[in-house]
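Student: I would love a firmer grasp of how sequence relates to backbone shape in proteins. Thank you; the sequence and its tokens follow:
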Amino acid sequence: GLSAPFDAQFVKLPLEVLAVSMARKQRIFGLVDKKGEVLPKFLAIADRQMNEKEKKLISGNYENILHAKLQDSLFFYREDMKIPLAKKREELKSLIFLKKAGSMLEKSQRLETLSKSFGKSFGLNPDQRQALEKAAHLSKADLLTQMVGEFPELQGVMGRYYALHDGENADVAEAIEAHYHPRFAGDSLPKSKLACAVALADKLETLLGIYGIGQVPTGDKDPFGLRRHALGVLRILIETPLDIPLPLLLKIAAENFPAGMLSATVAKDMESFM
């Protein structure tokens, strides 16, 4: 085993950024103390016995590479925080979601209106609805940040950090991150009704939007991950206290799209698919 320090200034970075910076290329491990505070130190595993001179040399190489990576990450983080998420969201019009389904801004707008509809169905109070609308409005804005451009796996995670930096309340920030969950089998689910509403809206908008223009999974081919999104919806409905029938959610979601954009039977087709 090897260990070495890194510059303490990088502890200012979010834990998730440190973790992905260490793990993606270098396969090294970060450390926290008993209180969960990040330590400016890392561990690495060697596949052979080494003398002290070799350990020092290899640890130094790890340290130099990590320093360069974290320097970039810190720059991205500071630059991103100069522009509020609300401003970043406007740039989504330059990103294409799918040729027949419009830009990411159009997807974001559909997600926002669908989340509002779900808020009523889920019985949220006025304050919760207001927070829901804000979370849905900002949910995709971090796709335009430099940090997510560098680390796509941090979408949602960085949205939470930037939302808190912009002064949004914790419920809004939590929902921005959680609306991507579950991202894979066994992943955690959104906890609050607010977060569940945005997560269901996002997944159903994606499912109906892609399925409804004819991009149906066949055999083992599922390039847009529709099966994963479908399983995510079902897990949320089964494993959380929500008591909303799937056919109703599909009907509301289908009606959220512009007339004629999707196939007329998309809600029923998606119910059968799921």
